[in-house]
Amino acid sequence: MEDIFALSDKQIQERIGSRLRAARLKQNITQLQLAHSAGLSLSSVKKIENGNVGTFESLLRVLRILGRLDVFQTLVEEDSLSPAEYYALRNASGKNQRKRAAGRIKAKEEVSEW
Q: Domains in the chain, ordered, with CATH?
């Protein structure tokens, strides 16, 4: 597999478009059917498949219809902490808390008039 970081943005977009076209054809869906199901114009679907995504929302709609939203799974998941990380984070947050002074606040002493 080729290193994605070595590819230009245009090359990545073209490959994504090509993969979306392949996924659509594998599911035996026409561009018109995909456009209708995704609520997009036919020209938008054609542009996406040619590597020219108009908006992120359009891409999401196409991926949803093709059942490929899983490509974003790692981006939308919450990072889970290991028990050791949680313990360290919990203890670190306690160290920076402000501490109260010990004892009570003394009321002002009354001054006697002599």
A: 4-76 (1.10.260.40)
Model pLDDT, residue 38: 97
What is the rounded distance in angstroms from the CA atom of residue 2 to the CA atom of residue 72? Answer: 20
0.90 surpassed by pTM: no
Measure the CA–CA gap between 15 and 38, rounded to whole angstroms.
21
pLDDT at 63 over 60: yes
- Using CA atoms, how far apart are residues 43 and 2, in angstroms rounded to an integer? 30
Amino acid at 102: A
Other beta carbons within 10 angstroms of residue 54's beta carbon come to: 13
100 falls in which pLDDT band (50, 70, 90)?
low
The per-residue b/e assignment along 13-44, b for 16 or more CB within 10 angstroms, e otherwise, is: bbebbeebbebbeeeebebeebbeebebeeeb
Say which residue, 59 or 2, is predicted with more confidence.
Answer: 59
| DSSP-based three-state secondary structure for 64 | helix
User: Can you tell me the distance from the alpha carbon of 74 to that of 10, in angstroms, rounded to the nearest whole number?
Assistant: 23
